[in-house]
């Protein structure tokens, strides 16, 4: 009878290790499941771990969306500055057009000048109705009306000049604008200044009788 103990083979050893691993696997899975099902401190009773995870994901998405919107929204002060600049540009543009219009009126004559001239003519007729020399009649009836027309046209020319200069120098004063002054505004303003200067020169010449002298009684 053979009493020598049998030595375990390599196959038996491998099978034993595999069996031990299989037995230990449920413990690892159980530990992992316990870690996933763990609920953080401070959570209300009845809230599961999956609910906490869903709330975390929702909070993260909301924060990301808020960040995107915050980055794309324009600055309120920038919008206000642009609106103010647009309003200032509209005002200076209108002033430039007014300057050019006043310059044209100073050259062509205004109805106010005609009314004032007719008034002076009427006053001259009243003054000379009781008699007067020819020179006096020319001065009272014709000369005063001529000078009044020149004076009124000169006022329009001076206004055109002042408004045009104001439009050009406006960007240098007050709060700096975020938008540069439009080119057409400067062009129209320069046109108003040119017409104003020309109208002012002509009016001064008319008032001082530099271009056309008053008729004399001897020449009549």
Secondary-structure topology with pairs:
Elements: H1 10-36, H2 49-72, H3 76-108, H4 111-127, H5 134-169, H6 183-207
What can you tell me about this protein's structure?
With 220 residues, the chain is mostly helical. It contains 6 helices and no strands. α4 runs antiparallel to α5 (134-169). The longest helix is centred in the last third of the chain and has 36 residues, at 134-169. The N and C termini lie far apart (177 Å).
The amount of beta strand, in percent, is: under 5%
Annotation field: number of helices: 6
Radius of gyration: 49 Å
Class from secondary-structure proportions: mainly alpha
State the total count of DSSP E strands: 0
**Outline:** rod-shaped
Provide a short characterization of the protein structure.
The protein has helices spanning 10-36, 49-72, 76-108, 111-127, 134-169, 183-207. It is mainly alpha-helical and 220 residues long. Mean pLDDT is 74; it is low at 4-11, 21-36 and 68-72.
Keywords:
74% helix; mainly alpha; 220 residues
């Amino acid at each position: 009878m053979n009493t020598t103990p049998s030595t375990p083979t390599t196959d038996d050893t491998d099978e034993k290790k595999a069996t031990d691993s299989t037995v230990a696997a449920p413990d690892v899975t159980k530990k992992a499941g316990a870690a996933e099902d763990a609920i953080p401190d401070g959570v209300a009773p009845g809230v599961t771990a999956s609910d906490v995870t869903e709330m975390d994901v929702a909070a993260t998405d909301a924060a990301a969306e808020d960040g995107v919107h915050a980055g794309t929204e324009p600055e309120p002060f920038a919008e206000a500055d642009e609106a103010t600049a647009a309003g200032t540009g509209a005002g200076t543009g209108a002033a430039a057009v007014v300057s050019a219009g006043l310059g044209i009126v100073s050259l062509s004559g205004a109805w106010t000048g005609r009314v004032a001239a007719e008034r002076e003519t009427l006053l001259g007729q009243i003054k000379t109705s009781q008699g007067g020399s020819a020179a006096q009649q020319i001065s009272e009836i014709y000369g005063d009306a001529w000078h009044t027309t020149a004076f009124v046209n000169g006022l329009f020319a001076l206004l055109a000049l002042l408004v045009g200069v104001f439009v050009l120098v406006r960007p240098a004063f007050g709060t700096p604008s975020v938008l540069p002054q439009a080119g057409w505004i400067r062009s129209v303003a320069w046109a108003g200044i040119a017409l104003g200067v020309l109208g002012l020169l002509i009016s001064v010449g008319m008032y001082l009788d530099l271009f056309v002298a008053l008729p004399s009684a001897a020449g009549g």
